[in-house]
């Protein structure tokens, strides 16, 4: 459910005599939206459907800006000069590839945060006390080594570093986009023209171009103007919503917002995977130049640990150091041919097996 705005909360919770008649610039659009939403439940004429869709898109756009972007612009991280300096020194070790002697200091600062997040997941799943104790012991032993990583997967510290980047006031999308180098933009462009619904969105922008030409357009346009990536994501959200509504799905408020959140999450996850895989040199300068670095690291660590805890729950807290929390960004083969019917059938079977195994 969508959260009420500050004005609505004040009008609901305060005594009338205490109100200072606050201005509610968002009230008129909300009332207007509620009236137009009622049209969707009346006779589904083209005019009513169009009015409802336009009002719903306008309302959802307002909510995306308020929840997904304004939150990052308004949040203030508390500066702690001594802790910030200490955290910057620890990050310098991670980013230089020489973290071997900082384990004790790193764990003293940040392991308690991770433990609290894992305990909240234990509570949510009502795990027995014996299981919790065993998992906490394993977590304390595995935390540092999971950040070091092993095998071909991206190390945990790199994933955490990208999440620190995301705490900037630009929000996750622009914060990551402004860090990408040529390799990162090539990976993003490759996925934008070949991956499922993203390929459909890119085709709407450059319908007459060949696949390679569209990829080049994505690369050059967004590399020159990274901020345009936000507009591209907004277009993708609109097209996904229209696709769902045209099929009669997700027309209720919760369903529409679920489409927005799902596609936002996928986009941020893919961009996070790209930056984690490439780790351009600019990342070091950006992280070490952030104010309130200790508070930002804790915020990033909470989000990282939340995803990590649920991942570990699915595999019985095995704490495999070669398994990254953020799925790897696979570089699609440019000349790969479409799947035939037999390959599609085999792929569906494989996906079903993965889903079933992941839920047992």
Radius of gyration: 23 Å
What's the total helix number? Answer: 16
Oligomer: single chain
Please state the overall shape, judged from the principal axes of the Cα atoms. Answer: globular
Low-confidence stretches: 7-25
How does this structure look, described?
This protein is mainly alpha-helical. It is built from 16 helices and no strands. The chain folds into three domains: 6-74; 81-167 and 290-314, no CATH class; 172-282, no CATH class. The two termini are 29 Å apart.
Question: What key attributes describe this structure?
Answer:
single chain, 360 residues, mainly alpha, 16 helices, globular
Summarize the structure.
The chain has 16 helices and no strands. The protein has helices at about 5-15, 25-40, 45-75, 80-95, 105-125, 130-150, 155-165, 170-175, 180-195, 195-205, 210-225, 230-245, 255-280, 280-290, 295-315, 340-360. Helix 2 (about 25-40) packs antiparallel against helix 3 (about 45-75), helix 5 (about 105-125) packs across helix 15 and helix 9 (about 180-195) packs across helix 10.
SSE blueprint:
Layout: H1 6-13, H2 27-39, H3 46-74, H4 81-95, H5 103-125, H6 129-148, H7 156-165, H8 172-177, H9 182-194, H10 196-205, H11 211-224, H12 228-246, H13 253-278, H14 282-288, H15 293-314, H16 341-359
Helix pairs in contact: 2-3, 4-15, 5-6, 5-15, 7-13, 7-15, 9-10, 9-11, 9-13, 10-12, 12-13
């Amino acid at each position: 459910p969508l959260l009420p705005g500050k004005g609505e909360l004040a009008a609901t919770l305060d005594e009338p005599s205490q109100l200072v008649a606050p201005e509610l610039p968002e009230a008129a659009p909300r009332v207007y939206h509620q009236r137009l939403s009622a049209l969707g439940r009346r006779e589904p004429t083209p005019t009513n459907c169009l009015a409802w869709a336009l009002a719903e898109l306008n309302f959802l756009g307002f909510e995306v800006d308020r929840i997904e972007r304004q939150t990052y612009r308004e949040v203030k991280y508390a500066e702690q000069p001594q802790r910030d300096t200490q955290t910057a020194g620890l990050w310098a070790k991670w980013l230089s590839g020489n973290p071997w002697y900082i384990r004790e200091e790193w764990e003293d600062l940040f392991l308690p945060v991770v433990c609290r997040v894992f305990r909240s997941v234990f509570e949510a799943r009502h795990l027995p006390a014996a299981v919790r104790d065993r998992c906490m012991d394993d977590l304390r032993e595995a935390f540092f080594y999971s950040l070091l990583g092993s095998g071909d997967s991206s190390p945990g510290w790199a994933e955490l570093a990208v999440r620190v980047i995301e705490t900037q006031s630009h929000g996750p999308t622009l914060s990551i986009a402004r860090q990408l180098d040529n390799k990162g933009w090539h990976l993003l462009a490759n996925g934008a023209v070949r991956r499922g619904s993203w390929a459909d969105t890119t085709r709407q922008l450059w319908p007459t171009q060949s696949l390679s030409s569209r990829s080049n357009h994505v690369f050059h346009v967004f590399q020159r103007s990274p901020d345009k990536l936000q507009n591209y994501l907004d277009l993708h959200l609109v097209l996904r919503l229209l696709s769902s509504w045209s099929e009669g799905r997700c027309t209720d408020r919760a369903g529409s917002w679920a489409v927005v959140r799902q596609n936002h999450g996928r986009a941020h996850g893919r961009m996070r995977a790209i930056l984690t895989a490439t780790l351009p040199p600019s990342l070091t300068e950006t992280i070490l130049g952030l104010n309130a670095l200790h508070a930002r690291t804790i915020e990033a660590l909470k989000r990282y640990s939340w995803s990590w805890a649920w991942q570990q729950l699915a595999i019985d807290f095995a704490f495999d150091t070669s398994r990254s929390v953020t799925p790897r960004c696979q570089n699609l083969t440019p000349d790969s041919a479409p799947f035939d019917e037999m390959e599609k059938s085999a792929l569906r079977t494989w996906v079903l097996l993965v889903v079933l195994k992941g839920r047992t």
